[in-house]
Amino acid sequence: MTVLFADVVHSMDIAAAVGAERLREIMTDLVNRAAVVVQRYGGTVGSFTGDGVMAVFGAPTALEDHAVRACLAALGIQEDAKRLASDVQERDGVELLLRVGLNSGKVIAGEIGSGPFGYTAVGEQVGMAQRMESGAPPRGVMLSASTARLVEGTAALGEPELVQIKGADKPVAARRLLGMEERRRLIERVESNLVGRRWEMSAVEGLLDRAIDGHGSVVGVVGPPGIGKSRLVSEVSALATARGVEVFSTYCESHATDVPFRVVARVLRAATQVSGLDDHAARARLRAVMPEADPEDMLLLDDLMGIADPNVVLPRIDPDARRRRLIKAASLARKAPAVYVVEDTHWIDEVSDSMLADLVTVVPQTPTLVLITYRPEYTGALSRVPGAQSIALAPLTDPDTATLVAQLLGSDPSVGELGQMVAERAAGNPFFAEEIVRELAERGVLRGNRSAYISTVGAAEVSVPATVQATIAARIDRLDPAAKRTLSTAAIIGSKFSRDLLETLGIDPVLDDLVGGELIDQVTFTGDPAYVFHHPLIRTVAYESQLKSDRAELHRRLAAAIESRNPASADENAALIAEHLEAAGDGHAAYDWHMRAATWATNRDIAAARRSWERARRIADALPAEDPNRAALRIAPRTMLCATAFRVDEHVAGARFDELRELCTAAGDKASLAIAMAGLVMDHLYQGRTREASQLASEAWELTESVGDATLIVGLSEPLVSAKAGSAESNDVLRWSQRVIDLAEGDPSKGNFIIGSPLAFAFAERAAARCTLGRPGWRDDQRHGLAMARSTDPLSYAGVVHWVYGIGIPSGVLRPDDSAMREIEDALQGADRSGDDHVLAIAHMTLGLALVHRHTDTDRDHGHELLAEVSDMFLRGGYLLFELPIVNAYLAREQARDGDRDDAITLMRTAADHLIRQGQLLGWGIPATGVLVETLLNRATDGDVAEAGAAIERLAAAPADEGLVIREIWLLRSRALLARAHGADTAYRDCRDRYRAMAKQFGFEGHLAWAEAMP
Ligand SMILES: Nc1ncnc2c1ncn2[C@@H]1O[C@H](COP(=O)(O)OP(=O)(O)O)[C@@H](O)[C@H]1O
Ligand SMILES: [Mg+2]
């Protein structure tokens, strides 16, 4: 057992100042408060010593963790005393200070009688506790060596010290108690024994053991509220703890489903055990846990977990890359066996959902068990993890329900019939059964204690609410007004709330009744104590049962409190603040915060940003027609939604875009329309609608020109020029890139609101057009573009490298020499670290195309593999489809090299036909035709030769701008090959020589090498 002794410092001085009467009043108050705390932790208050309090834990009832409980109580008493002291200070002008001492020891059975303890009963132990008290500093708690030993694992303790005690000659060893680790279930409530669930328990236990052996799994525990999901999980957690496996739990909340990153941040905070630390300490701990992680990745993790140093600038990288890197970094976090719990996943935010779904893919190779609870309506990513187990919890069977009800009620004959009624109503839902029993007890139908009730009324006269919600509502209704208000306000805040925040919202919290009634549970006991709702349904009912107007007011105050309590995190909290303001009915303010949340999320997760724009859009649409800002407010989020749709492979062509066009036209807002259009151009391109892309690009180009803003023209140029290049309109590419080069006036960062350096792209684009048209200066353009992009950012670099090599090598303009390969690899690495998934795919494509133009089999095999992956990626992802045919054409060429010529030719034909249909014959269609011709002529059946001839003529006959040199040189090459196949030697030599000469004339290194290699 542990003895607690608390006493007031200098009580004589206080008596002198306020009089004996008042002192007694103060002391009574103090003792009463202390008694409540002691009881909360299962202790017993002993004799009142005049100006102090004595309490015993672990006797007369044995409590294993008596020392822990006593420590918690000691801290709780100090906390309460502090509150009382401030009243006393105000009223009496004196300082009330308390000291607490603890000591643990054995009790000899029988020593303790039923009455208050006398010194004789536990004399020695109490004496030591009292000495500890006298050695404690004011407001402090001092532990004897025996108590300190028992709590070492869970308590924060000061260094061992020696306490000199008045009247004793030898100093005694002691340690100060500084704090207790927070732990949700430290103090277990009296719970019913688990009934039923045998099969479920043994299934999960089996999976737990497999996980400990290194074969982890993900388990979904599914069922309606109250059915026992959390209970199952907590039983498994107890098993895990007993096996020495750590358990990390997180939960999701109904009001935070649109607050991005919330849950994944919590999971990581739990997993790395940084909760409760200040940001500085948390960062240090994180680095200690993951020593091998990349330092820049750690900054991303800091940001994700909400512990970032505000003075450190985040690396500028795309959300996709951020996510890839975070997932890689987070998976380094733990190697020891662990159980992760995510509760109430039906409320998870989308970003967390998909990030966690990605994270858990590695679980089967790790010693990890992931338990996810959710209601049946949830169908998000975490419910569809491949290979995950799912356990659906059915209602308890009738006999199991009967057992549970009997446990709750006890066996007094008077409750027999009532029990049947409870069981019937509860219909196998254990929480419903518990709530009915609580409600009956509170109503006075049941008397006595849990598990030992006596019914005061015949069962026939008792009515029971029809649903669990109605039962909870009846219980809440019966609370006194102050407690009810506390509960309602808490419901606005969330599942977890603190006394302090309740006070900030302007109420005087009454919490003890709520804890006593098991409506809420206290989860932290030190500092600002925190509480959680005993069950999510209680929160829902408490939320919904208030007047809407009251609720609105509280939401408004809460929004203000979140902002003012943590102004540095306002951006991070913007989505949450917006949520509360929207619930408060303040549309304008909510709109602003949604837009702010979107801006914050733009660099972190584009889907999250889009969600916030979507919310803002809905608010704007609901504004009254006479609102003067309505049009502008409706346009802004829509513009961003259209502009970014292609990035998440969403499609806005059609109604979505037309509506914005109408709004912009009505409001005369050309700039917004142009921005949205650029996004739609990309969407068209990505979907392989090259013609539509080109047409819209022309319109968008004119529109930006008519706005007359150079920055806008430069900034939007890249997608528009890409569209023109896609459909081989080289003159437009030349003209437009020239315009950008002129307008940018040498400033690489001009118009950098979409990409880092539009000017670098313009150089690469002009180079491509110049090559195609046989104009001089393309080499310098390439060099300029590459150098500029390299020193701007990895994304621009990967894009420019694609323009230069990704197009240049297959076209025969450049050779994949070692320095080209180095540059391509560098760009790929940069794209991997900072680029979105599309840029990364492009970088892979560039590398793949370059590799299949190399000489060694190793390189070509590697290129073959890459192209196969890229093709698959484009097709499955449904993006970059205008690049798909050329990837497939080269993929087919490698297939032919491997001997599968027939399939390869089919694939090439399809690719070529596709390019023709999409108006790309004079773009990617040129090398695609070349590849097809070459492969056909290698197989060389009569039909093949004829087909090759036809393909050449098709290309030659396509109407084109003047001077399409790139076509001419490919035609020469193809015609040479055809002539050889026909055995027409003179014609062959003639074509070959002209081919060589032309390659030399234009400096096309690729063609030069191919021409030299021709016999
Ligand atoms: N099999 C069971 N035996 C005894 N009590 C149970 C059982 N399942 C659930 N309970 C109790 O019912 C209440 C509700 O269960 P809980 O796990 O919170 O439900 P859920 O998480 O599905 O909403 C809890 O108090 C829990 O202890
Ligand atoms: Mg639950």
Helices and strands in order:
Layout: E1 2-8, H1 11-18, H2 20-40, E2 44-45, E3 52-57, H3 66-92, E4 98-104, H4 119-135, E5 141-144, H5 145-151, E6 155-157, E7 161-163, E8 172-180, H6 198-212, E9 217-222, H7 229-242, E10 246-251, H8 262-271, H9 279-289, H10 295-305, H11 319-330, E11 338-343, H12 350-359, E12 368-374, E13 389-392, H13 398-409, H14 416-426, H15 430-443, E14 446-449, E15 452-455, H16 468-477, H17 481-493, E16 496-498, H18 499-504, H19 512-516, E17 520-524, E18 530-533, H20 536-544, H21 548-565, H22 574-583, H23 587-602, H24 606-622, H25 630-644, H26 655-667, H27 670-686, H28 690-707, H29 710-726, H30 730-744, H31 758-773, H32 778-790, H33 794-811, H34 818-834, H35 837-851, H36 857-877, H37 884-897, H38 901-917, H39 925-939, H40 942-957, H41 965-982, H42 985-1002, H43 1005-1012
Parallel strand pairs: 4-5, 9-12, 9-13, 10-11, 11-12
Antiparallel strand pairs: 1-3, 1-4, 2-3, 5-8, 6-8, 7-8, 14-15, 16-18, 17-18
Helix pairs in contact: 1-2, 2-3, 6-7, 8-12, 10-11, 11-34, 13-14, 13-15, 14-15, 15-16, 16-20, 17-20, 17-21, 21-22, 22-23, 23-24, 24-25, 25-26, 25-27, 26-27, 27-28, 27-29, 28-29, 29-30, 29-31, 30-31, 31-32, 31-33, 32-33, 33-34, 33-35, 34-35, 35-36, 36-37, 37-38, 37-39, 38-39, 39-40, 39-41, 40-41, ...
Bound molecules: adenosine-5'-diphosphate (ADP) and magnesium ion (MG).
Adenosine-5'-diphosphate binds at residues 191-192, 194-197, 223, 225-231, 404, 430-431, 434, 535.
